[in-house]
Amino acid sequence: MVNSRLVHVLEKKKWLSPFQSGFRFGRGTIDNILLLENSIREAFVSKKHLVSILFDMEKAYDKTWRYGILKDLYGIGFKGNLPIFIQNFLKTRSFRVRIGNTLSGVFYQEEGVPQGSVLSVILFIIKINEVIKQLPTGVNGSLFVDDLEIHCSGEDMGFVERKLQEAVTKISEWGKKNGFQISSQKTVAMHFCRRRGLHLDPKLLLHDCTIPIVRDAKYLGLIFDSKLTFKPHVNYLKRKCIQSLNIIKMLSGTSYGAETSTLLKVYKALIRSKLDYGGVVYGSASKSVLQALDTVHHQGLRLSLGAFRTSPIQSIYVLCNEPSLELRRERLTLNTFFKIKSHSSHPMHYKVINPIYGSLFSLRLSFTPTFGFRVGGILRNLNINDFPILEKVDEFPPWKDIKLNFIDDFEHLPKSTTSTLVYRSIFYEHRHRFSNYEPVFTDGSKSEGHVGTAVAMGNTVVSERLHMFFSFFTSEIYDIYLALTKMDSFNKNFIVYTDSKSAIEALKKINTLSHPLALKCAEMHQYLTEKGLTIAFCWIPGHAGISGNEKADQASKTASLMLENFVPLGDAQQAVRILILKKWQSIWDEQQVNKLHEFHPSVGHAIISNLYRRQDVILTRLRIGHTRLTHKHLLCSEPPPMCSRCQSILSVKHILIECPNFNICRLNRFGRNITIRDLLGENPHQNLFLFLKDIGFDKLI
């Protein structure tokens, strides 16, 4: 409780540095990594040097100055009981050391914050927050809790060296005053440069020790190299993923292994999570570098399916419902882009909206563009224009109870068993009881290429067309918000009627994770109630002949005027998912000669089977069309096997449908006029495995 309230006030007052990303809502390590990568790309294209220093603080949590925390809290404006509570929380902390079964005496911790406590992180962040303010003009930096990085760029290395030395000196002095000790052994610097000719690395001192200049270094889990090729990181990532693949190999025997769905979950947890992390940044590497990770992705999916080694990779993607790493990185990149756009205080916000050096990047094509330009290329490739994102809505104070009034006269009557006459009768009785409330009807609609919303208030109907990426739910919650905004000029009591149960449920459960428009509704409701208005919300059934609802419904479907062009973050990310799915579908549609395409024409869904592992593997290989009998020759550099009777190349379709050798078995098990889709489709033929056993093919798959 104390933590949530303290964090809320700090965020509300914007006291925390925007360059601190640690343990803050909507922020993460990728923000800091992206900020550094963006600065390096800008330095490369403008032919500048950029030097970055990665600081290491020794036992930062254990050496945090307690009095300094209380002093900073007082400086922010916290007085009274909270500082006293924090002081009591920090003092009289003890510890013991155990060696084997022997315990030492009790020792009291003089400084530091308790490890593992929910309050410790925010108290530490408060104490270290001022370090960013020590940086001189021209030097930039970022924090993830105690991971501090600073960098400076310039055409003259002497200028860069002087600026960074000034910054290092100030940070060191600040650390001594505030109880932080920076390790001169673990602190490293990197010189990023693509300029030709000889140029010396800078000489920087920390505690009279030279900071080593390294060729590559790991920063927040991502390995940066001096040319920003990300080749060292990709190679490291591949080695780590191959180690994890050994677990899947142990679980994925073709006759005894786990279910495919279970293996895919293991793959996503152990390997795909590693490949995803930092993909929006290292995805800027060249295709030849990134191809090293494709083999890991392919092998993990192939082992999970039990597919034969020669199986087409596009077929494996579709059966696993897992797109290529390239498509996945595009999706993650767009999601990150829209998330940054929704936070105007994000340090990358204006860098992605208005990226600089566009003319230089267009002339110097050998230079990889910055994140904002890369996103623009992806959007153009998907044939969509950029659009504004709804700004993140401030959360309600955690100590404030949000109370909205709801009327539940209709919710106990299910639409499946209640006639429209009953609904209308109950509504008329309901309106008689609440005749002193002005009715306001709202409705949203979504169809192919059109999203609309409407509010019917008396004889007035207001309708708006919304962005095509709005979800149906968002259109319903937006029309409630629109209705609330129209009440500002009245001095009446209102009941807002909606036929969306999901919108009512969203308003009943307002919290920090609520839809931003639901938060805006609660915010507007609070403003109106403070003015003296009484407002209630009521669900009514749609298409039940209630005139106000029908009027709003018709107006929402014909709305043409677009006043608001924004899209909530959740809807934007859902639109990205659909757009990437369409791109994947277009790639799959090009695979017309692919054997799987015949009975699995669409992507985006996996075929779930409840078969034993061996049967599941057999069915998978038959669907893909690659088995040991028909395609082993590709591994041995041999000619393809031929049917002894038909003198045609052996294939799964030939064996199951065409070869006259098996006509009698085929007739007994399947009957006449059987197709390959009947045998291997989403619901495979019940006698398929018996037929395979009859002809002896089951042992050769």
From TrEMBL:
<keyword id="KW-0695">RNA-directed DNA polymerase</keyword>
<dbReference type="InterPro" id="IPR002156">
    <property type="entry name" value="RNaseH_domain"/>
</dbReference>
<feature type="domain" description="Reverse transcriptase">
    <location>
        <begin position="1"/>
        <end position="224"/>
    </location>
</feature>
<dbReference type="GO" id="GO:0042575">
    <property type="term" value="C:DNA polymerase complex"/>
</dbReference>
<dbReference type="InterPro" id="IPR012337">
    <property type="entry name" value="RNaseH-like_sf"/>
</dbReference>
<dbReference type="InterPro" id="IPR036397">
    <property type="entry name" value="RNaseH_sf"/>
</dbReference>
<dbReference type="GO" id="GO:0004523">
    <property type="term" value="F:RNA-DNA hybrid ribonuclease activity"/>
</dbReference>
<keyword id="KW-0548">Nucleotidyltransferase</keyword>
<dbReference type="Pfam" id="PF00078">
    <property type="entry name" value="RVT_1"/>
</dbReference>
<dbReference type="Pfam" id="PF00075">
    <property type="entry name" value="RNase_H"/>
</dbReference>
<dbReference type="GO" id="GO:0003676">
    <property type="term" value="F:nucleic acid binding"/>
</dbReference>
<dbReference type="InterPro" id="IPR043502">
    <property type="entry name" value="DNA/RNA_pol_sf"/>
</dbReference>
<dbReference type="InterPro" id="IPR000477">
    <property type="entry name" value="RT_dom"/>
</dbReference>
<dbReference type="GO" id="GO:0003964">
    <property type="term" value="F:RNA-directed DNA polymerase activity"/>
</dbReference>
<protein>
    <submittedName>
        <fullName>Putative RNA-directed DNA polymerase from transposon BS</fullName>
    </submittedName>
</protein>
<keyword id="KW-0808">Transferase</keyword>
<feature type="domain" description="RNase H type-1">
    <location>
        <begin position="434"/>
        <end position="561"/>
    </location>
</feature>
